[in-house]
């Protein structure tokens, strides 16, 4: 993972702030939350944690307007476990996010 960080730091790109938003069954509130996060980030990665409601439809609806660049969906388990966190971090690095150690 740290080799990915070094690779992008060497490119001398301006810092990019990427917000990670995990959620589960937040259909009624997710658009408000994503729009608020979009005011402070250059891109958003959304992680759906096995939602059984219309959360994903709401995210898709505001995807372009709020710069949601990736939508990751889990099919089993709940929460942000280490493999999921690492996957989100790798997606952020691919979007040339600013990383600090």
Describe this structure in words.
There is one protein chain. Helix 3 (55-61) links the parallel strand 2 and strand 3 (68-74). The longest helix has 13 residues, at 82-94. The radius of gyration is 14 Å and the shape is globular. The model has no long low-confidence stretch (mean pLDDT 78). The protein has 4 helices and 3 strands, in the order αβαβαβα. It is α/β, with parallel strands linked by helices. The chain has a single domain, classed as 3-Layer(aba) Sandwich (Rossmann fold). 19% of the residues are buried.
Top-tier CATH class: Alpha Beta
Enumerate how many helices there are, as a single number.
4
Mean pLDDT: 78
As a percent range, the share of helical residues equals 25-40%
CATH topology: Rossmann fold
Radius of gyration from the alpha-carbon trace, in angstroms: 14 Å
Strand runs, count: 3
Q: Tell me the structural class.
A: alpha/beta
| Net shape | globular
Largest sheet descriptor: 3 strands, parallel
Strand content range: 15-25%
**CATH architecture verdict:** 3-Layer(aba) Sandwich
Number of separate domains: 1
Low-confidence stretches: none
- SSE order: HEHEHEH
The largest beta-sheet arranges its strands as 1-2-3
First-last Cα distance: 12 Å
Present the secondary structure layout:
Elements: H1 2-9, E1 18-23, H2 30-38, E2 43-49, H3 55-61, E3 68-74, H4 82-94
Parallel strand pairs: 1-2, 2-3
Explain briefly what this protein structure is.
This protein has 101 residues and is an alpha/beta fold. The chain has helices at residues 2-9, 30-38, 55-61, 82-94, and strands at residues 18-23, 43-49, 68-74.
């Amino acid at each position: 993972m740290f080799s990915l960080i070094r690779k992008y730091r060497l490119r001398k790109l301006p810092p990019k702030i990427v917000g990670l938003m995990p959620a589960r069954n937040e259909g009624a509130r997710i658009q408000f939350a994503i729009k608020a996060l979009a005011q402070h980030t250059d891109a958003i990665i959304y992680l759906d944690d096995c939602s059984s409601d219309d959360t994903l439809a709401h995210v898709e609806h505001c995807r372009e307007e709020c710069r949601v660049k990736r939508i990751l969906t889990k099919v089993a388990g709940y929460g942000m476990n280490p493999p999921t966190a690492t996957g989100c971090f790798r997606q952020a690095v691919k979007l040339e996010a600013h990383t600090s150690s």
